[in-house]
Design a protein that fits this description.
Length: 733
C-alpha cells in the first residue's frame, strides 16, 4: 500500500513486514539527530548539564565508573546463567528464518553465534520448504566489518526492480557504523556479490533513499547547511544521477525547516510509475504530492488524514473526525477512492473499514486481487479479507486463536502465479511462532504451516489471561497476565509489568522466548515463579487513534494513571504487592518508567528504565526530540511547559516525596551510540537521583547498539539479563 517502491524492503530485519496503516508518519523511522552538546547557558540551573557532553573525557569517565559499579554488583554466576539462557534462545539455529520474496528468491537476514553481525542471504522456495534450506550468502557482515575495520551493523537492503522477466541484480545496502540510525548507503551487485566499483555510495547520515531507475536515486539526506530541519532530518530531496556528486545534484523537493522530514519515493509498479513526495509536518500531520509534468500536485485532504497509494487507488485514514463532502468519517476509518477521480474532484469515497469502540485497524496489505486487513478487537487479532470484485465486501479469515497475535501479508502480489498467496504468522505469549502460507480464494482454504519454532522454556504450567483495570477517569484499561496456573493470590508473587503508551504503538501477544528463561521459570527461595504483565495503556494504538489521542500532550497523565491503575489492580487482586512488583519500559516506555519512579513510588519495588526520555525541559534540543513535539508538547512555549513539566521526571525529582515512601530500586540504562533519544537524559536522571541520596540507583550504558541498546545477539542478551537480574534481586525475596 505504500506510495514508495514496493520492491524496496527486502531485508530490513528477519521478519515479515505487513503494510502499516497509513498514519502521517510512524515512529519506526524516527531516527534522531546528532546529540546536542551542553549549551544555552543552563549550567546554573542544571548542575548535571555536563553529562550532555556525549563523549567528553569527564562524561565518559562518569559512564565507565557507573558501568563498573553496576557490573561488579550484578555480573555474577546467576547473571551469567541468565545471560547464557537468553543468548541460547537468540542464537538458536532452529528459529524460523522469516523471508521476503523478490522474483524467484526468498531473502532473509540471519544472526547466530557463528555470525553475530549477520548474513544477508537467499534461497529458493523448494529449498526453503526443507528443514535445513540451502542458502546463498549474499553479504557476510562479519567479514565485511573485519575487512574494513568498521563495526558495521546491517540496516536493510532496497532492491531495484528489474525489467520484466529479468532477475534482480542491484540493491542499496544500508550499514550503520555503530548500530545507530545513521547509515552509509552502498550499491551492491547481486551477480558478482560485491559492491559496485564507483557505484552509488552515500556517506553516513540519516538518509532516506529510493531508486528512481537503474542510474538515478532520490535522496533525502544531509548535504550541508540548510539541508536539515530543526529535527535534524532531511529538509530537501535531490535527484542523484550515476557518477554525479551529491552536492551538485539538483534539488527537487523541499519543506519548511520547522517541519520534521521530507522524502520522495518512486513507485515502480508496472503501469503505475510515479514519484510521490511527503512533507511530514509532525508525527500526525503530513502532506502528500504527486509529480505531474515536473509539478508537485497536492493530494488535497486535511493534514491529519493519512494518505497512501496502491496502483489506481488512493487510500485515506483520518486521525480525527473528518467530514468530506457532507459525510463524516470517524478516526481510524479506512477509505478508498480512484486516484484519478479524486485528483479531478469527482471521486466518491468508499469506507472499507469502520472501527467500533472495541476494534482498530492495525495494518493492511494487498494481494493481486484482494486486500488483507489486520484488526484488533480488545487487543485480540482478527483478519479480514476485502474483495474489491464483490463490492469490497469483508469476510473474516477463521483462525480461532484467542489471546494470540496473527497477521497476514502478501507473498508477492505481482507473481505470475500465486499472486493471491499470503503469509500468516501466529504467535502467543506461550505459543512459539509459526509461519503458514495460504491463498485467498472463494473457499479460503486453511493455510499450510511451513515453519514452526520450538518451545524455549517449559510453559506447561503457565496460562494467559486478560483483565481490565479502571483508571482514574473511569476508563477500562486492558492488560495481559502470564502466570503459573496455580498462582496463589496472597500478594507474594514476583511480577514484572511492561508498558509503552505512545505514538499509537500497540503491545500485542508475542512469544516470550527470552523472557521465559529470564523471568518466568526462575524461582524465588520459596519456590515462587515469575509473572509477566503487558499493559495496554492509552497513548498506544490498541483501540486506534482515539486511544492514542486520549493521552497526547496535556492529557499525557492518562497514560501514567492507566499504568498505575493496573498496578493497583494487581495488588487488589492479590497477585502481588509493592515489594514484589517490578516495571520496565524503553524509549517512550522509559519516560513512562520515569513517571512511575517519581509519581507512583508507593506502587513499585523496582523499575528498569531503558533508553528513556526524562528531561522534558530540554528534550527538544537533544537528539531527535524536536520531532516529538506533537506527542508531548513544546517546552519552549510557556503554555506547553505548564503541562509538560508535570510529566518531566527529571523535574519531578524536585518534588518532596510523601512521608514514609521511598523511591523504587531503579536501573537506568542507555547506549552511547543512541542517536534517536540519546544517553544524556538517562545519565542526568541517574546522577541527580544519586546526588539526592536515593537508595539503590544504578546506571549502565552500552557503548554501541543505538536506540535498540544492542547491535548483536550477545549484546542483546547482556542488556536483557542486566535488567532482569536487577529487578529479580530487588523484588523476589
Amino acid at each position: 500500500m505504500s506510495s514508495s517502491n514496493p520492491r524496496e524492503s527486502d531485508a530490513n530485519s528477519p521478519g515479515l513486514s505487513t503494510t502499516t496503516v497509513i498514519n502521517a508518519s510512524s515512529p519506526t523511522w524516527a531516527s534522531g539527530a546528532q546529540i546536542t552538546n551542553a549549551q544555552d547557558g543552563d549550567s546554573s540551573e542544571d548542575p548535571f548539564l555536563w553529562l550532555e557532553e556525549l563523549d567528553s573525557q569527564r562524561a565518559m569517565d562518569w559512564v565507565v565508573g557507573q558501568n563498573n559499579r553496576t557490573e561488579a554488583e550484578l555480573f555474577d554466576n546467576d547473571f551469567e546463567a541468565t545471560r547464557a539462557g537468553i543468548l541460547e534462545v537468540l542464537d538458536a539455529t532452529d528459529r524460523i528464518p522469516m523471508v521476503t520474496k523478490r522474483g524467484e528468491h526468498y531473502y532473509n537476514f540471519w544472526r547466530d553465534s557463528q555470525h553475530p553481525k549477520g548474513l544477508w542471504r537467499r534461497t529458493s522456495w523448494e529449498s526453503y520448504l526443507e528443514n535445513d534450506p540451502v542458502w546463498e550468502i549474499l553479504l557476510d557482515i562479519d567479514a565485511l566489518a573485519a575487512a574494513e575495520n568498521i563495526e558495521w551493523v546491517f540496516s536493510g537492503a532496497q532492491m531495484l526492480r528489474p525489467a520484466a522477466n529479468q532477475p534482480y541484480e542491484r540493491a542499496l545496502i544500508k550499514l550503520s557504523p555503530d548500530g545507530g540510525d545513521q547509515v552509509r548507503v552502498r550499491e551492491f551487485d547481486l551477480p558478482t556479490l560485491s559492491f559496485v566499483p564507483g557505484g552509488f555510495d552515500l556517506p553516513v547520515a540519516k538518509t532516506k533513499v529510493s531508486w528512481a531507475d537503474s542510474d538515478t536515486l532520490l535522496v533525502a539526506t544531509d548535504v550541508g547547511e540548510g539541508s536539515l530541519t530543526l529535527s535534524s532530518y532531511a529538509r530537501t530531496v535531490r535527484r542523484l544521477s550515476r557518477g554525479q556528486d551529491l552536492a551538485q545534484s539538483p534539488e527537487i523537493f523541499a519543506i519548511d525547516p520547522s517541519h520534521v522530514l521530507a522524502f520522495v519515493s518512486h513507485d515502480s509498479t508496472p503501469g503505475f510509475e510515479r514519484d510521490v513526495a511527503h512533507d511530514v509536518i509532525d508525527f500526525y500531520n503530513s502532506k502528500t504530492f504527486l509529480r505531474r509534468h515536473d509539478v508537485w500536485l497536492p493530494i488535497e485532504v486535511p493534514t491529519d488524514v493519512g494518505v497512501s497509494l496502491h496502483r489506481d487507488w488512493v487510500l485515506f485514514s483520518p486521525q480525527t473526525q473528518w467530514t468530506h463532502e457532507g459525510t463524516t468519517h470517524v478516526p481510524g476509518t479506512l477509505l478508498l477512492a480512484d486516484l484519478e477521480e479524486f485528483m479531478a474532484g469527482t471521486a466518491t469515497l468508499r469506507e472499507i473499514f469502520v472501527p467500533s469502540e472495541s476494534t482498530s485497524l492495525q495494518s493492511i496489505d494487498f494481494t493481486a486481487n484482494y486486500i488483507l486487513l489486520n484488526v484488533l478487537q480488545d487487543v485480540a487479532s482478527h483478519i479480514y479479507i476485502c474483495d474489491p470484485a464483490n463490492d469490497f465486501a469483508l469476510r473474516p479469515l477463521d483462525i480461532g486463536s484467542p489471546l494470540h497475535s496473527f497477521s497476514a501479508s502478501a507473498v508477492d502480489d505481482e507473481a505470475a502465479t500465486g499472486g493471491d498467496d499470503f503469509w500468516l504468522t501466529l504467535t502467543g505469549f506461550l505459543t512459539p511462532t509459526s509461519l503458514a502460507r495460504g491463498k485467498v480464494s472463494d473457499n479460503d482454504d486453511a493455510p499450510r504451516v511451513i515453519k514452526s519454532a520450538p518451545s524455549r522454556f517449559d510453559a506447561a504450567d503457565f496460562e494467559v489471561s486478560q483483565h481490565f483495570a479502571v483508571s482514574d477517569d473511569g476508563t477500562r484499561v486492558p492488560y495481559f497476565q502470564i502466570s503459573p496456573q496455580d498462582l496463589p493470590l496472597d500478594g507474594k508473587n514476583p511480577v514484572l509489568m511492561n508498558g509503552y503508551g505512545g505514538f499509537q504503538t500497540s503491545l500485542t501477544p508475542g512469544y516470550l522466548g527470552a523472557l521465559g528463561p529470564g523471568w518466568l521459570v526462575r524461582r524465588t527461595e520459596t519456590g515462587r515463579r515469575g509473572t509477566y504483565v503487558v499493559a495496554n495503556i492509552r497513548g498506544g494504538g490498541e483501540y486506534g487513534p482515539r486511544w492514542h489521542r486520549a493521552a497526547l500532550r496535556e492529557n499525557r497523565h492518562r497514560a501514567y494513571e492507566d499504568f498505575a491503575a493496573i498496578a493497583r489492580d494487581l495488588i487488589s487482586r492479590g497477585v502481588t504487592r509493592r515489594e514484589h512488583l517490578a516495571a520496565t519500559g524503553r524509549s517512550n516506555g522509559g519516560l513512562l518508567m520515569g513517571n512511575m519512579i517519581t509519581g507512583y513510588p508507593e506502587l513499585f519495588g523496582a523499575v528498569s528504565c531503558g533508553v528513556p526520555l526524562l528531561d522534558m525541559r530540554r528534550y527538544t534540543r537533544l537528539a531527535a526530540g524536536h520531532s516529538w513535539i506533537a506527542e508531548y508538547g513544546d517546552p519552549e512555549v510557556p503554555e506547553d511547559w505548564e503541562f509538560v513539566k508535570t510529566f518531566s521526571p527529571y523535574h519531578r525529582l524536585d518534588d518532596a516525596l510523601p512521608e514514609g515512601v521511598d523511591y523504587p530500586a531503579s536501573l537506568i540504562w542507555s547506549a552511547t551510540s543512541d542517536d534517536r533519544v540519546g544517553p544524556v537524559q538517562a545519565r542526568k536522571m541517574a546522577a541527580k537521583m544519586m546526588s539526592q541520596g536515593v537508595r539503590d540507583v544504578r546506571y549502565h550504558e552500552s557503548l554501541d547498539g543505538g536506540h535498540a541498546g544492542a547491535s548483536d545477539n550477545k549484546a542483546s542478551a547482556t542488556m536483557l539479563a542486566t535488567s532482569y537480574e536487577f529487578l529479580w534481586r530487588h523484588i523476589s525475596s
